[in-house]
Amino acid sequence: MQWTLVIPLKPLARAKSRLAAAAGDGLRPGLALAFAQDTVAAAVACPAVRDVAVVTDDALAGRELAALGARIVPDEPGEGLNAALRHGAAVIRAERSGASVAALNADLPALRPLELGHVLDHAAHFPRAFLPDAAGIGTTLLTAAAGMELRPAFGTASRAHHTASGAVELSLDGIDSVRQDVDTGEDLRAALALGVGPRTAKAAARLLIAD
Fold it and tell me: How far apart, in whole angstroms, are the C-alpha atoms of residue 72 and residue 117?
């Protein structure tokens, strides 16, 4: 099975607000873009991924991510993360009703294509499935097989919300890069320890110089 990934991205000026303490508002937007670039580059390179749709209204991010092979879908609802994901999935399925879709966070800078493929291959056994984040509270990936609604419930305690919605929690070893999202300085240090993509490495080096 191949998947269409739907990746939501806020306007860069507002993205990753919890990183402000570690990066300041000067470097934070650049970090958010670098995270998304490395995430998309890894996703596009994954054999289990047919295509990637990024839902965003940020012009710079749209240009940069399109250059990496992503399709850019305007965030027409403009009502937050879950509305953006529902819209992205609807756009894809309006064109391919039988598409298997998966929501993926845009802040997985250490993402490795083979690890993502391993997760998606296991998700293919279930109508809906999800992967909890490294903290064990949130979600980094939510999948819906053909004919199933995505029903995203990202945000506070999304692991519990996705479980309550009937999605199967995936429990796998060796896929840390798919679970390590970045919201805080501590998260960024954990991602750097795993090994991030080249754009995040460059942006993080600027952060270290600034400190």
Answer: 22
